[in-house]
Amino acid sequence: MILAIALSVAMRPKPQSTKPPALADFSVPTAEEGREVMVIFGEVWVDDPNVLAYGDLRTTPIKASGGK
User: Fold this and answer.
1) Contact, 39 vs 46, CB < 8 A?
2) Do the beta carbons of residue 50 and residue 37 sit within 8 Å?
3) Which of 6, 18, 66, 68 is the most buried (most CB within 10 A)?
């Protein structure tokens, strides 16, 4: 029984480590010169956005303190 458990643990597939998304992975539409800037009030659906600013796109390392 113990041998079967040890064998199944040793033979199970190892999960692949995935890389976190980088700034290049995000596709944010940007402003183009000569294009009009829409002023929107309330909640509406925009088919073709012209984004002038989009959040805080900086990467900061995660600092985890171990234990107490």
Assistant:
1) no
2) yes
3) 6
Q: What residues contact 5, with CB distance under 8 A and at least 6 apart?
A: none
Q: Where are the alpha helices (DSSP H) in 1-68?
A: 2-11
Q: What is the C-alpha to C-alpha distance for residues 59 and 54, in angstroms, rounded to an integer?
A: 14
Place of tokens 């900086």: 58
* pLDDT (mean) for 20-24: 76
Copy the structure tokens of residue 62. 């995660």
CA nearest to 47, candidates 61, 65, 29, 35: 29
